[in-house]
From TrEMBL:
Belongs to the glycosyltransferase 2 family. Keywords: Endoplasmic reticulum, Glycosyltransferase, Magnesium, Manganese, Metal-binding, Transferase. The lineage of its organism: Eukaryota, Metazoa, Chordata, Craniata, Vertebrata. It comes from Pygoscelis adeliae. It is found in: Endoplasmic reticulum. Its EC number is 2.4.1.83. Pathway: Protein modification; protein glycosylation. This is Dolichol-phosphate mannosyltransferase subunit 1. GO terms for cellular component: endoplasmic reticulum membrane. InterPro entries: DPM1-like (IPR039528), Glyco_trans_2-like (IPR001173), Nucleotide-diphossugar_trans (IPR029044).
Length: 207
């Protein structure tokens, strides 16, 4: 790619064999490129970000899911976009340009679209996809946002963008194709939807 990089894999004891595959990749590409930083149990997405940041040596951090629902082919586009506008954050968007979602049923699509629509109306964040997690951050910006964000679960990604706008950080967007995981199950259920609505109202009241 011509870019200096490292891949930090945070596995929270998932039962899908992530750790074993990561160990194989480490043997192939070397421990300077593939950094395994597992944790014994699931401790939440926010703490996983903090855990990964401690080990990141670069000035920019790309965060993505490791199940290939986020395709690595978009990373060079994220980097180009960042350089083009000197953005603090570049966010992958499923809802703009050539972006899209593949493998979701109608119910899941409606929930995601609805969540984004309600958020756009209430918070006016200036970004088209607030619940996705495929993003590039300046390292110091990510650190600052992690200090400010208090949400967990589905609301966390949304709060990251809302707080970024609040703090005056610049955000670029790159259309991405999101493909639902082939293995494992989505964690979106009734409890997550309720916690999303609670978190949305909290953000509305505090921003």
């Amino acid at each position: 790619s011509g870019n200096n990089f490292e891949i930090i894999i945070i596995d929270d004891g998932s039962p899908d064999g992530t750790q074993e595959i990561a160990e194989q990749l480490e043997k192939i590409y070397g421990s300077d490129k593939i950094l395994l930083r597992p944790r014994a149990r699931k401790l939440g997405l926010g703490t996983a970000y903090i855990h990964g940041m401690k080990h990141a040596t670069g000035n920019f951090i790309v965060i993505m899911d490791a199940d290939l629902s986020h395709h690595p082919k978009f990373i060079p586009e994220f980097i180009r976009k960042q350089k083009e506008g000197n953005f603090d954050i570049v966010s992958g968007t499923r809802y703009k340009g050539s972006g899209g979602v593949y493998g979701w049923d109608l119910k899941r699509k409606l929930i995601s679209r609805g969540a984004n629509f309600i958020t756009q109306v209430l918070l006016r964040p200036g970004a088209s996809d607030l619940t996705g997690s495929f993003r590039l951050y300046r390292k110091e910006v990510l650190q600052k946002l992690m200090e400010k964000c208090v949400s967990k679960g589905y609301v966390f990604q949304m709060e990251m963008i809302v707080r970024a706008r609040q703090l005056g950080y610049t955000i670029g967007e790159v259309p991405i194709s999101f493909v639902d995981r082939v293995y494992g199950e989505s964690k979106l259920g009734g409890n997550e939807i309720v916690s999303f609505l609670k978190g949305l109202l909290t953000l509305f009241a505090t921003t």
